[in-house]
Specification:
Layout: E1 5-12, H1 20-36, E2 41-43, H2 61-77, E3 82-90, E4 96-104, E5 107-113, E6 137-140, E7 143-149, H3 158-164, E8 169-174, H4 182-197, E9 201-205, E10 207-210, E11 213-216, E12 220-222, E13 228-231, E14 238-245, E15 248-249, H5 260-278, E16 284-288, H6 292-305, E17 310-314, H7 322-335, E18 338-341, H8 345-355, H9 366-387, E19 390-393, H10 397-402, E20 415-416, H11 423-433, H12 442-446, H13 466-478, H14 483-488, H15 493-505, H16 507-511
Parallel strand pairs: 1-2, 2-3, 7-8, 8-9, 16-17, 16-19, 17-18, 19-20
Antiparallel strand pairs: 1-14, 3-4, 4-5, 6-7, 9-12, 10-11, 12-13, 14-15
Helix pairs in contact: 1-2, 5-6, 6-11, 8-9, 13-15
């Protein structure tokens, strides 16, 4: 039985893309704390030096020069602990790699180049990097340690090669973004690697929001039998420890499990906090409607930023129900945010007067409804321009899919909090928010959803019931089912044809929508790249 022991620190840090100084500071602070705690080795996430994903910054030569300068400075400043640092690497032959290096006492003990470059979902690494082809195993305090980076462990090969090269312990550094159920998937995949190698593994993941992506952290470690030895919390920066002893990892701290609703809530909160904070906005503006989407968005914003950085604006029209006003007032009082009301009827009359000569002989239709939404958009954007706060739009995934939103109206803003949250899940989250007492007024949750742009209007005047709509969108969009497969599963051909048609013809709208937080396996953004102009017809 091996007698070598190795205390390992796992630095689950929230890096900022392109901010080398901040990222080096975070890594240095973690390394000092880890060394003080007696750790001999510390992991950082994938590309922690520069943040992930840098996207086309990786095409700029100066980006690599700055990365190299930061790398060299950090290397000299680190305390007496081996640090596994993720970084971009440009070689003398101008080849570029997603790499990790082991730094100790001002020296580079080893460097590993990522072998499997993901080019699916939100990933586009083949655009930027060459694939490495060499296994990396280094020795520290008598323990032979293998290195892998993220996608390397999602299929067999790289981990097994490290084991064949003598590795007794595998380290995997990652920038694995969140979607529902992702942590369980990671556990399953890494257990497959453990089964194939019979050596333990330590998995370090990035945490924090980066544009539409949210990285949940959730770093963990598995013994050589696949047992969970360590589990960091999700959506929080953390410095955890696990000890390698007698050929295996010792049991360590394991965070309590969470529900799906809590995970999605924390993902949305993290996404808002980091989008606003990392981009330097002083606060946010939200247009309240008395509906469930704007109510939930307001709750998320307050949790992310604090009530002092959130401002709610209610813009009633002649069609706004008194219930909507009462419920909105109750909500903002409960949350303690600044609240303003601006009636839009005067502006509606001006538009009507200006356009009536041009609209002569036509009937009122969606045009007049959209004008109301656009008046509200103009008011919110005026406040945004004057105050510097960013407008959070409140539309959900169900609406974005079928175009049930107004360009330059309720789609006007800078960040779409619920863009990847189906309407049915909006209700689940709202119930979760109220789990310990009413925050969102019950009327908002139970009343039929309505845009309130004409008398007696409800969403189901224009859409199938959300329970039906969401399943059709999810199976067509996320699972790539054909319409005939969806119909065969029990949905009416009329509803399927209608929803698929709306989804296709509204691509031009979605291209003009703000970025939003990704929480499902496939969101409207990096991993949805459908043409606006296309004549492809599905088979029914």
């Amino acid at each position: 039985m091996k007698s070598s022991t190795l205390k390992i620190a796992i630095a689950q840090v929230n890096c900022v893309v392109g901010d080398f100084a901040t990222n080096c500071r975070l890594i240095l602070e973690a390394a000092r704390a880890a060394a003080a705690a007696g750790a001999k080795l510390m992991l950082t996430p994938e590309l922690s030096l520069c943040g992930y994903p840098p996207e086309d910054l990786l095409l700029r030569p100066d980006f690599y020069r700055q990365a190299k300068a930061a790398f060299d400075t950090l290397k000299q400043e680190l305390p007496d602990i081996a640090v596994v640092l993720g970084h971009p690497l440009e070689t003398a032959g101008e080849k570029r790699y997603n790499a990790t290096s082991v730094l100790l006492r001002g020296q580079v003990l080893a460097t590993y180049r990522k072998q499997r470059l993901p080019n699916y979902e939100v990933f586009d690494e083949e655009r930027y990097f060459e694939a490495g082809d060499e296994t990396c195993v280094f020795e520290l305090d008598g323990v032979r340690v293998g290195l892998n980076i993220c996608a390397d462990v999602w299929e067999s090969g790289a981990a097994e090669a490290a084991r064949s090269a003598g590795a007794e312990l595998l380290l995997a550094i990652n920038a694995s973004p969140y979607h529902m159920g992702k942590l369980q998937e990671r556990h399953e995949v890494l257990r497959e690697r453990v089964a194939g190698t019979r050596i333990p593994v330590v998995y370090c993941n990035l945490v924090g929001g980066q544009d539409e992506l949210v990285f949940d952290g959730g770093s963990f470690a598995l013994s050589r039998t696949g047992a969970l030895c360590y589990q960091a919390g999700s959506f929080v920066s953390a410095l955890g420890y696990v000890e390698y002893k007698n050929g295996d990892l010792e049991p360590a701290q394991i965070a309590s499990p969470t529900t799906l609703e809590e995970d999605v809530w924390r993902a949305l909160v993290s996404g808002v906090r980091d989008y606003v904070g990392k981009n330097g906005f002083p606060g946010v503006l939200i247009g309240l409607s008395g509906g469930i989407d704007s109510a939930l968005t307001l709750c998320i914003a307050v949790e992310a930023l604090g009530a002092d950085k959130v401002r709610a604006v209610m813009m009633p029209s002649p069609y706004t129900a008194q219930m909507s006003l009462d419920d909105s007032r109750a909500l903002v009082e409960k949350l303690g945010v600044r609240y303003d009301e601006i009636a839009i009827e005067p502006a509606m009359k001006i538009f009507d007067s200006s356009l009536s000569p041009l609209f002569s002989g036509t009937q009122a239709d969606a045009t007049e409804e959209n004008i109301q939404a656009r008046i509200r958009g103009v008011l919110l954007m005026a406040l945004s321009n004057k105050m510097g706060s960013i407008v959070l739009i409140t539309g959900n995934k169900s609406e974005m899919a079928v175009g049930y939103a107004t360009l330059y109206g309720d789609m006007a803003g800078g960040f779409a909090v619920l863009k990847d949250v189906f309407k049915t899940f909006v209700y689940r989250l709202s119930r979760w928010v109220n789990r310990n007492g009413e925050i969102i007024p019950e009327n908002i949750i139970t009343r039929p959803p309505s845009a309130e742009l004409k008398p007696g209007q409800t969403d189901q005047d224009s859409l199938p019931p959300y329970a039906t709509l969401d399943v059709i969108i999810e199976t067509y969009m996320e699972q790539d089912w054909s319409p005939r497969e969806i119909i065969a599963s029990g949905y009416s051909e009329f509803d399927v044809r209608r929803v698929v048609s709306m989804l296709k013809r509204n691509e031009y709208k979605r291209r003009q929508s703000p970025p939003g937080i990704r929480v499902t396996r496939r969101a409207f953004g990096k991993d949805w790249r459908y043409p606006i102009t296309a004549r492809y017809q599905d088979e029914y």
